[in-house]
UniProtKB/TrEMBL annotation:
GO cellular component: cytosol
Lineage of the species this protein comes from: Bacteria, Bacillati, Actinomycetota, Actinomycetes, Propionibacteriales
Pfam families recorded: Pribosyltran
The protein's name: Hypoxanthine phosphoribosyltransferase
Cofactor: Mg(2+)
Localization terms from the record: Cytoplasm
InterPro entries hit by this protein: HGPRT, Hxn_phspho_trans, PRTase-like, PRTase_dom
Protein origin, superkingdom: Bacteria
Length: 183
């Protein structure tokens, strides 16, 4: 779905589909270089990372495996609940593996720091994070994100996997949501 299809539900287009795809190609090139000769497991965080996983993995020239986790940190609103629960765990034993966590967005970083300490306790050979989007708040967290698609302002954004109340994930671009939609 194109961002223009949504009329005044969206207040501002942040990135066009072309800009998103160009950035992902650049990230994939870095991942290719950094993981050359290594077996990498991409761990996608459901549901938002579905789009970036699909595009990133296909842009890679190296082999990769893929697995998924589902954790909950947000309700249907736009504020973090601070509660993190594992809804679906990995099917893979990651001990000794090179793990690259693939996220849609890092906002406060609460979700990610929980996820990282959880995965670290399983003794992977290496553990890094790639996120499509990152908000400024995340920089306050001690969690290091190795690959960042775009640093964006602290506004609620939708598209490219990001939802409001489970909708808008299928927008090919990324836009800010008009306040009248959620207030
Ligand atoms: P924290 O604050 O733990 O949150 O880093 C990460 C999760 O919060 C959701 N999130 C958003 N979802 N538009 C969205 O659709 C946004 O602007 C946004 N900011 C945070 C998202 O689920 C992410 O995984
Ligand atoms: Mg998420």
């Amino acid at each position: 779905m194109d961002v223009s299809a949504l009329g005044n539900d969206l207040s501002r287009v942040l990135y066009t589909p072309e800009e998103v795809q160009d950035r992902i190609a650049a990230l994939a090139a870095q991942v290719d270089e950094d993981y050359a000769g290594k077996d990498v497991l991409l761990v996608g965080v459901l549901n938002g990372a579905v789009m970036i996983m699909a595009d990133l993995s296909r842009a890679l020239s190296i082999h990769c495996r893929m697995d998924w986790m589902a954790i909950s940190s947000y309700g249907s609103g736009t504020k973090s609940s601070g509660v993190v629960r594992i809804l679906k765990d990995l099917s893979t034993d990651i001990a000794g593996m090179h793990v690259l966590v693939v996220e849609d967005i890092v906002d406060t970083g609460l979700t990610l720091s929980y996820l990282i300490s959880n995965l670290r306790s399983r003794n992977p050979a290496s553990l890094e994070v790639l996120t499509a989007f990152r908000k400024p708040e995340a920089l306050k967290m001690p969690v290091e994100v190795r690959y960042v698609g775009f640093d964006i302002p602290s506004e609620f954004v939708v598209g490219y996997g990001l939802d409001y109340d489970q909708r808008y994930r299928n927008l090919t671009g990324v836009a800010t949501l008009a306040p009248h939609v959620y207030s």
